[in-house]
Write a structure and sequence with these properties.
The protein is mainly alpha-helical. The chain starts with 9 loop residues before the first helix and ends in a 5-residue tail after the last helix.
């Protein structure tokens, strides 16, 4: 087959046309002595070109021919190969798809004859045929050889398309069953005295139990043992354990012929910590008392496969009723929510997009959805009790539990993904669920699935399409039938009964399923455009609601918002067309009471949740002030002006709370904000800016109505406490001082009266009952406290602080910052107090002792009676007060020398103290973590309950909602409380050293 230099031979060109990627190497192989008689036979070349990998198939064929023991065997293989199309297709198909089976044939060159038979019964072998195929195996090594020979026949029919993927999986499960029986027989033959003492049943679980096994997979089993009549039970169980252990080693251990597959018994009661073999009574007692929901889910696939068949059937008969009662368990909802939160954190980031099984839109999504629906509805419908995923899906569709079109799409996607998984594993017979990255591997994989035109691109496109279908239907599968149960259906369509719909809603976490169904009926019934769009949106929205701590509240508020805005064209268009809006709305409505309450007072604010409409980014203070002052100018009087300003405040509080919730929960496209401190700073800064702007607008409205453009006295508002520190929470009062300075020629009494009237009117207008939340102004931190005048002149402040100021007042002034009114007056007030709060010589020891006494007295007197100090976010050990007083003591002592400490903000001051070497990096991090967590707890309580609080709620649903906000999944409220105690305890240790230790 030589050709002139520089020219390609006709064979080279033909090989390229037939799909060879290395025609030169293929030419050399075809020129080898073993293929001399058939090298020009077009039948052979066509058959090689039809395989997944022609190069691999040709290499395997040459190796197989070379391994034949003599000329006669060699010629027999060649003759049969050319003359018998079934063998040719099967043999070359296997060689082109599986390197591992090519290796097996090279080691056992006569096994190709297992592919010759082409009888009807050979096309679909069952358990009996596989048992015959393994019958001659008398030791683990020969069992492996026989297993591979049987596997060869399955693979051959699979790659040739004689059987489809579900049949392949069923045959692999039957082969596994036959193998377990053969391995048990070997173990019993090796220890006849043990076999005589006990009855041992092997129960297949997982994919083997479900009759849907992969080519390479752990075979999950559970062992049940009983004593034979008259035998001692303990001795019998020890004997059964030895037999079971030997069976596992026979299948799992590596020999010269490799291993078969690992036998995994970790699904047994107590997992790997429990005994390998238990009696039936022991199994039953465990499942009745201790088993978790996922363990009943695993039992869906339990099937006796080896050993004492009667005992295995007794096991299944005893435990199956418990499986169908699992949905009635008290903790079923929380367990289901945990299971629905598919754990992908353990998948390396580089692999998540290649995961066929665990990745988004993967096989696990389909299997979990089907199994959950079986658990919910199988207790009342025995037709759903199949261990096979596709059979169960078909039954769910037939019963109306899943839409027929959805089931058909899911069936198609599942078959494609399982086919990909099979072919990936078949190549080297390795347990993997990762789509390969190598171009050659992807090409072989695509061709093996009959994607011959641009196989790599087509495979990738089809894989992504099917995964997308699974992702989309995974949620829809649960919720679409709920809508069909309450909305008009096409004649003849199956639908959920009211009871089935109720069961499903309970399983998904709805506490009042009857009310939920009424809401769904109101939203989705009818033939209007609104109802049609709602029917499209609700399946996904219901899933997001169910992912929260209070699905009922989310659905109810969604109905209210939709009733208010349903006739507004932009509302449904926003939810339908803007990807973020619908999910953001679902998160916000089901996270607690505050945000929905704010929204319901002005539903049009839902526009903020979209990609447009201003978004959820807090607006700068200057913009807020500009909007409020413009609203005041347009108003006819102060009441109207302040009402408008309060409306802006309500809208912006909703914007901030929504941003906080979405950042804390995360969305499908954007993970939760990892930096908790950033969320705290966002809320504190936004609410503080909003409060300052509201005071500015209110001040302008009051002055304008009473005095026109100019007040007789200059007037400034000084923010104190959390307000001055830019750390306000949703429910915080505005701590302030009022300072004024009479204008030139104005009598001091007139000025004072004007200033006091302004304060009184501001407080009144900001607290008038209305749809908008009130803003409470607290001036108790003024000189002399509640006993002192509400408003003072700058000179009065100066005289008081020079002569009378107490340590606690200097301490309070650390947070003082001008927030509204006359800027020059505010600046001069700040200059006045700087020497007090940052004393040149620091604090003397008496002042330090006084601060410590004040702190200790506050802890003992102000902690509410009955409150758990360790869980009090403000006054408890390691809480806000501890951290803030510690930081503020450092500011009082060192602020004069360290400019970075001259800030009203706790976290900035703490960072400056660390930079100045006044506190170690570790201690600073500990205090910062505790302060951020305590602040988050207070914000969470306000968001969830709609009213301020410093302790964790006691109502379980509210506590769960706080946990979700803080990043804890369902059922992990205890973990959240433990984590808070640990964080606070570490912070208290630092406080003890820095604040009380005299450092």
């Amino acid at each position: 087959m030589t050709s002139a230099p520089g020219r390609r031979s006709s064979t080279f060109t033909r090989l390229l046309r037939h799909g060879f990627t290395d025609p030169s190497a293929a030419e050399r192989l075809l020129d080898s002595a073993g293929l001399a008689l058939v090298r020009n036979d077009p039948v052979l070349l066509d058959a090689l070109g039809a395989t997944a990998d022609p190069d691999l198939a040709l290499q395997g064929l040459v190796r197989l021919l070379e391994a034949q023991g003599g000329a006669t065997a060699h010629q027999e293989l060649l003759d049969t190969l050319i003359a018998a199309k079934p063998l040719r297709d099967r043999l070359l198909g296997v060689l082109g798809a599986s390197e591992a089976l090519a290796d097996h044939l090279a080691r056992h060159p006569s096994d190709w004859q297992a592919l010759v038979t082409y009888e009807p019964r050979d096309l679909h072998p069952g358990l009996e045929e596989f048992e015959r195929g393994l019958a001659g195996a008398g030791d683990p090594v020969s069992l492996r050889v026989a297993y591979r020979r049987c596997l060869l026949s399955i693979a051959a029919r699979d790659v040739c398309g004689t059987i489809e993927v579900a049949q392949t999986a069923a045959e692999l499960a039957d082969l596994a069953t036959a193998t377990l029986r053969a391995a048990l027989a070997l173990a019993q033959a090796a220890a006849p005295e043990d076999a005589a003492l006990c009855r041992l049943a092997v129960i297949a679980m997982g994919k083997c139990g479900g009759h849907e096994l992969n080519y390479v997979s752990d075979v999950d089993v559970i062992f049940v043992g009983e004593a034979v009549n008259g035998a001692d039970e303990d001795k019998a169980l020890r004997a059964a354990t030895r037999l079971a252990s030997h069976l596992m080693r026979i299948c799992s251990e590596t020999t010269v012929e490799g291993s078969i597959w690992p036998v995994d018994a970790n699904l047994r009661p107590e997992g790997r910590n429990g005994p390998l073999v238990r009696t039936l009574a022991s199994h039953l007692a465990y499942y009745q008392r201790w088993a978790k929901t996922w363990e009943f889910q695993a039992l869906l696939k339990a099937r006796p496969v080896a050993g004492d068949q009667a005992l295995g059937e007794e096991y299944v008969a005893a435990l199956q009723p418990l499986v169908w009662q699992a949905a009635e368990r008290e903790n079923f909802v929380a367990d289901v929510q945990k299971m629905r939160r598919r754990v992908v954190e353990n998948i390396p980031a580089a692999e998540i997009d290649r995961q066929l099984k665990l990745g988004p839109g993967g096989l696990r999504d389909v299997e979990f959805a089907v199994q959950l629906l079986q658990l919910v509805h199988g207790r009342s419908d025995a037709s759903l009790r199949s261990g096979t995923t596709l059979d169960a899906l078909k039954a769910l569709a037939a019963g109306g539990y899943v839409g027929r079109a959805d089931a058909a799409q899911l069936d198609d996607a599942y078959r494609f993904l399982r086919s990909m998984e099979h072919r990936i594993q078949l190549h080297r017979l390795r347990r993997t669920h990762l789509v390969p990255e190598d171009e050659a591997d992807l090409r072989r994989l695509g061709r093996s699935l009959d994607l011959r035109t641009d196989p790599v691109a087509t495979l990738t496109r089809e894989w992504k399409r099917h995964a997308s279908v699974v992702r989309r239907l995974h949620e829809k599968l649960f919720y679409r039938p709920l809508l069909d149960a309450v909305a008009a259906l096409a004649p003849g369509e199956a639908r959920l009964s009211a009871e089935a719909a109720r069961e499903r809603l309970i399983a998904l976490g709805y506490a009042d399923p009857a009310a939920a169904l009424r809401h769904l009926e109101a939203l989705a019934s009818g033939v209007t455009r609104k109802a049609a769009i709602q029917r499209t949106l609700l399946p996904v929205l219901l899933g997001w609601f169910a992912d929260s701590a209070d699905p009922d509240a989310g659905l109810l508020t969604f109905r209210k918002v939709s009733d208010a805005l349903g006739k507004t064209p932009w509302y449904l268009r926003l939810l339908r067309d803007e990807g973020a809006a619908a999910e953001n709305l679902a998160r916000v409505l089901s996270a607690g009471r505050l945000a929905p309450d704010l929204l319901m007072r002005a539903p049009e604010a839902v526009a903020l949740l979209g990609d447009g409409g201003g978004g959820l980014e807090p607006r700068p203070r200057a913009h807020l002030e500009q909007e409020m002052l413009a609203a005041v100018r347009r108003a006819d009087n102060a009441v109207q002006g302040v009402t408008a300003a309060r409306g802006v405040r309500r809208r912006e509080l909703f914007r901030t709370s929504a941003a906080d919730i979405v950042g804390s929960y995360g969305t499908e496209s954007q993970p939760a904000e990892a930096d908790q401190g950033a969320l705290v700073d966002l809320v504190g800064g936004a609410v503080s800016d909003l409060t300052a702007a509201t005071l500015s607008g209110t001040l302008r409205a009051v002055v304008r109505e009473g005095w026109g453009d100019t007040l007789p006295t200059r007037f400034a508002i000084i923010g104190m406490g959390r307000f001055g520190g830019h750390e306000l929470g949703y429910g915080s009062d505005a701590d302030v001082l009022f300072v004024h300075e009479p204008r030139d020629g104005v009598d001091e009494r007139e000025a004072a009266e004007a200033a006091n009237k302004v304060v009184a009117e501001m407080r009144r207008l900001l607290q008038i009952p209305s749809a908008d939340p009130p803003l409470l102004i607290d001036a108790d931190l003024r000189p002399e406290g509640k006993s002192g005048p509400l408003v003072r002149t700058l000179k009065s402040y100066e005289a008081y602080y020079r002569r009378w100021s107490l340590v606690w007042e200097r301490h309070a002034l650390l947070r003082a910052e001008h927030v509204a009114g006359d800027e020059d007056l505010g600046r001069r007030f700040t200059e006045l107090i700087d020497p007090l709060r940052y004393p040149a010589g620091g604090l003397d020891e008496e002042a330090v002792r006084e601060i410590r006494r004040l702190k200790a007295r506050m802890e003992s007197e102000r902690l509410p009676r009955g409150a758990d100090p360790k869980l009090h976010a403000k006054l408890g050990p390691g809480g806000l007060s501890d951290v803030e007083w510690t930081v503020q003591l450092l500011q009082l002592r060192h602020g004069a020398k360290e400019p970075g400490l001259r800030t009203t903000r706790t976290r900035q001051a703490l960072a400056a103290a660390r930079a100045a070497g006044l506190i170690s990096e570790e201690d600073a991090a500990t205090l910062d973590e505790a302060w951020v967590l305590a602040t988050r707890v207070r914000n969470a309580v306000m968001l969830v309950r709609g009213r301020a609080g410093d302790t964790f709620p006691t109502v379980p649903r509210e506590l769960g909602a706080v946990g979700r906000y803080l990043g804890y999944g369902p059922g992990h409220a205890g973990d959240m409380l433990d984590a808070y105690r640990r964080t606070a305890r570490r912070a208290r240790g630092v406080v003890e050293e820095l604040f009380y230790g005299g450092s």
